[in-house]
Amino acid sequence: MKPLEGAVALVTGASRGVGKGIALGLGEAGATVYVTGRTAEEGKGAVALPRTIYQTAQEVEHLGGRCIPIQCDHTQDEQTVQVFERIRREQKRLDILVNNVWGGYEKFSDGIKAWMEPGHWAFPLSRWDKMFQAGVRAHYLCSLLAAPFMTAQKAGLIVNISFTAGRKPHPNVAYGSAKAASDHMARCLAHKLRKYKVAVVALYPGLVRTEAVLKANKHFDLSNSESPQFIGRAVAALAADPKLMQKTGQVLVAATIALEYGFTDIDGKQPRPLI
After folding, report:
1. How far apart are CA 60 and CA 42, in angstroms?
2. Is 257 helix (H, G, I), strand (E, B) or coil?
3. Is the pTM here over 0.90, yes or no?
4. Given 54, 175, 196, 261, which residue is catalytic?
5. Which of 4, 101, 140, 166 is a plausible cystine mate for 179, CB 3.0–4.6 Å?
6. Which helix (H) or strand (E) holds 272?
7. 1 Cβ partners below 8 Å, 6+ apart?
């Protein structure tokens, strides 16, 4: 029996990138995975990158999981509410929520030049708004909607996907501020939900070989990079840990988790933790 057989998970923002990889890692472990994203038709996404939620679902099922794709724009609250209502109707439970959806990246997917603006004063205010609305706010709303499932079950895991920018100064002020907010949200939610045996953590990937990174690969040293599925293996290992509550409220690093739980990346490599 696979470690997450019978578990129900929701991964937001899983058309591609880290979200897709997390869905793959959870499906590999046997979970039923709901995935959300805006891209339902190839070539018609908000960014100039390949992949759709339906392709993610196919790959999850190829690995032995069950996957249900739902088109959702998480800046629209009613669409988010409908996702959770559907999970309640169809599953009547939710064991794992991965808050991965984010905003403000759209221009960056056009290639490395988009990262070369002279300073945060050159960034439009709309990018701050997108990171906090489609990122931080969406994480908060999804967590609120997941809480009734998990508190009733007296079990569950909520993961906010974040990055080292939340812990140390980052040249993109909006990005660093939003990630720090997501990290602290996890700490506060963990405090609130601890008595219900619901764990909440923030999880840092390293340099991930997403479609956007591979598009600009000549500008990156990928020697210590991670596949998107590696992050999914980290989430799956956490969800299967009987001592998970010992980690609630913490900011964790995927590569450190791999060393602790003894799993590798899909190519057999052991990425080094960035912090």
Report:
1. 18
2. helix
3. yes
4. 175
5. 166
6. none
7. 30
